[in-house]
Design a protein that fits this description.
This protein is of the alpha/beta class. The chain has a single domain, classed as 2-Layer Sandwich (Nucleotidyltransferase, domain 5), CATH 3.30.420. Helices cover 48% and strands 20% of the residues. The chain has helices spanning 45-63, 79-98, 108-116, 123-134, 143-158, 163-166, 170-176, and strands spanning 5-11, 16-25, 28-38, 67-71, 103-106. A five-stranded mixed beta sheet has the order 3-2-1-4-5. α2 links the parallel β4 (67-71) and β5. α1 packs parallel to α2 (79-98) and α4 (123-134) crosses α5.
């Protein structure tokens, strides 16, 4: 008998934090939540970090995830941005650990590779693939789909599966997953 599993995925940010929650029941994967947490109106970085901690606790208390997965910060425009993202991720990780939830981290490239088969895919390509896989509406802010992609990447990594390695093309995916197609 397959146990139900909940995975919370977080795309850390100091202005917008992307969040996705998936529910795995046997071989069925359902999107439970896709949202963003806006932090850009808070006055300073310390208040944003406090809010990230509180919001992460609320998400954990609401969805009761078995595991929490995070997108790792990456060096982009400047080192200060990476430091701020690292702090945001660290605070969210601390909240998860405070609730005794195991945490996992994936690089942006690994997440994109797991979802689309292309580690250099755009946010739009990732969102489009999530729409196909999970039958979701693409939200206004793609940070939400980024959080969802982190959760799904974690599921694929833990189960050593993803689209590219499991199926040669969409036709083989459809043939093996007729029960998932509406």
């Amino acid at each position: 008998m397959n146990k139900e599993k909940i995975i919370l995925g977080i795309d850390p940010g100091t202005n917008i934090m992307g969040v996705g929650v998936i529910n795995i029941n046997g071989k069925f994967i359902k999107c439970e939540k896709i949202e963003i947490v806006k932090l850009n109106k808070l006055k300073n970085h310390a208040l944003k970090l406090k809010s990230i901690f509180i919001e992460t606790l609320k998400l954990i208390d609401t969805y009761k995830p078995d595991e929490v997965a995070f997108e790792a910060p990456f060096y982009g425009k400047n080192v200060q941005s990476m430091l701020k993202l690292g702090r945001a991720q660290g605070v969210s990780m601390a909240a998860s650990l405070f609730r005794d939830i195991p945490i996992f981290e994936y690089s942006p490239k690994k997440i994109k590779q797991s979802i689309t088969g292309n580690g250099n895919a755009s946010k739009e390509q990732v969102a489009g693939m999530l729409k196909s896989i999970l039958n979701i509406e693409i939200p206004k802010y793609l940070d939400g789909t980024d959080g969802l992609a982190v959760a799904l990447c974690h599921y694929y990594q833990k189960n050593n599966t993803n689209f590219k390695s499991s199926y040669k093309d969409w036709s083989s995916f459809i043939d093996k997953n007729k029960d998932k197609i509406i």
